[in-house]
Amino acid sequence: MNHTENKDVCLNCGAPLDGSFCAQCGQKNISPRLQMGDLFSDFFTHFLNVEAVLPKTLIGLTVNPGRVAREYVTGKRIRYLNPLKYCLILAACFMLLNAALHIDVTGGMTERLDTFQSQSQSQTEFIGAARKLILFTFSHLDKFLLLVLPLYAVILFFLFPRSGFNITEILAFLLLVTGHRFLFAMLATLLSLIFPWLLIPIRLVFLYVYFAYAAVVFFDVPPVSGTIKAFAATFIYIFMVVVIMFLLLIVLLLSS
Questions:
Q1: Is pTM, for the whole model, over 0.85?
Q2: What is the DSSP string of 58-101?
Q3: Mean per-residue pLDDT for 150-172?
Q4: Looking at the DSSP assignment, which residues form a beta bridge with residue 28?
Q5: Into how many domains does the chain fold?
Q6: Each residue's pLDDT tens digit, 215-233
Q7: Where are the transmembrane segments (predicted)?
Q8: Residue 163 lies in a domain
């Protein structure tokens, strides 16, 4: 059997070959038979590609997230991880970490509610309903914020109409920034093991301050007006998500 390169057609798509790579699908001109070296070569090629872009993505999003997102949406994509992949991987890691460590995502709010001594049946029912609302909101907030991220993109699209970016490009910016916020959230979670009261303050700082910093650079707007618009967009977005979650909770309680 011939183990040399295939010289006639691409083994992936069947297009005629002219050179080392297929002009139709981009696959490398390879041997028709898989060899041991091919397994290791493919593995290390993909591994080293991730290794090369991961540090640039992490450092870039830490130092100047707006510039990284702006470069990505304007065409410089090979140097950074895909926004959707980056965000989903870090979101999954964050949720797994919380589940493994049994973190109190409410920051002790439910425990403080449990310390109240109710004087009547109505107060007991109110405290119970408040506890359910807080626990439901904080337990599922990150999931809802991620699922309705396109809504955030629409809000920013109308608040920054002169940016020239479309909704998809703004969504790519949000995926990169949100993914990195999940990384900061994991660090905050680990710190909360020592200082439980730090969990919510740290996450709020990165939710507003980090995002505002990124938005000013990405949309290329003056710092003051850009920060105000970024804060407004974040407030509107979270308010709408909480309202949606509150309505969903009411439906669940009524149906139970």
A1: no
A2: HHHHHH-HHHHHHHHHTT--TTS--HHHHHHHHHHHHHHHHHHH
A3: 94
A4: 21
A5: 2
A6: 999 999 999 999 999 999 9
A7: 86-103, 144-160, 172-194, 200-219, 231-254
A8: yes
